[in-house]
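testing teh design pipeline on a random one, pls ignore if ur not involved
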């Protein structure tokens, strides 16, 4: 395969399903794996007519919303229509967020963040495990380094990412011997999510963050390995370590930074 990457089997036509594939890291992953010859199944909320026809076609793209309780059944139907019986690599990349104090976030916004980032991911995993196990495939949960840190102004987002870590750990033990489960935590990435959730350049200079393509390449390389949990980036690894083992210190620092 190109880029020196392999998927989860020796077959270059390994089937890879990516959620949140129409933008950011998900789109970068889709392009990378397509260049390697994989068979792609891409999930997103945007209409097919708005997407690159070279990548998104009726045979590769399922328009669906993870916050919709019917999403898992819709995806399963899509797979069966294409006569796909196994998924070698399932990448749960879709995510959304909210910037601002919890008390200012609407109830509907909270429900949407939790549904997309956590509930929808769990329900889709529940439905698709039957496709991953027969080929002894791999389930990858894209978390965030903030799951190990106090995250004021992003509290609900951080909570969902922390919960993904717990879900991944339990699912890994449950599926031991039949499928692999990996949790990958990138840090801040230069994508369109910041603008969507109200983080302007006056708040964070997100142009300084690594590109989606750079982060996707590192995620793909991490997927090649067998580590259960991977943090992308040296600075993020330091933050993850500090947040995990020096919680009191980090909490005090964060409290001081928000005064």
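output:
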């Amino acid at each position: 395969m190109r880029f020196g990457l392999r998927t989860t089997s020796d077959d270059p036509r390994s089937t890879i399903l990516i959620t949140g594939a129409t933008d950011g890291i998900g789109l970068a992953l889709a392009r990378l794996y397509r260049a390697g010859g994989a068979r792609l199944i891409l999930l997103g909320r945007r209409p097919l007519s708005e997407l690159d026809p070279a990548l998104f076609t009726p045979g590769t793209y399922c328009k669906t919303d993870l916050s919709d309780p019917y999403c898992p059944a819709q995806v399963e139907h899509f797979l069966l229509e294409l006569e796909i019986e196994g998924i070698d690599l399932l990448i749960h990349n879709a995510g959304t967020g909210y910037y601002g104090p919890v008390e200012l976030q609407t109830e509907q916004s909270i429900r949407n963040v939790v549904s997309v980032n956590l509930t929808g991911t769990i329900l889709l995993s529940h439905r698709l495990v039957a496709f991953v196990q027969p080929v002894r495939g791999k389930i990858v949960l894209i978390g965030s380094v903030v799951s190990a840190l106090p995250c004021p102004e992003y509290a609900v987002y951080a909570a969902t990412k922390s919960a993904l870590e717990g879900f991944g750990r339990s699912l890994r033990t449950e599926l031991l011997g039949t499928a692999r489960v990996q949790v990958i935590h990138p840090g801040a990435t230069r994508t369109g999510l910041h603008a969507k959730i109200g983080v302007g350049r006056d708040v964070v200079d997100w142009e300084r963050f690594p590109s989606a393509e750079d982060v996707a390449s590192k995620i793909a390389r991490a997927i090649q390995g067998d580590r259960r949990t991977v943090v992308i980036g040296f600075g993020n690894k330091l933050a993850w370590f500090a947040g995990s083992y020096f919680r009191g210190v980090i909490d005090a620092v964060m409290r001081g930074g928000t005064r």
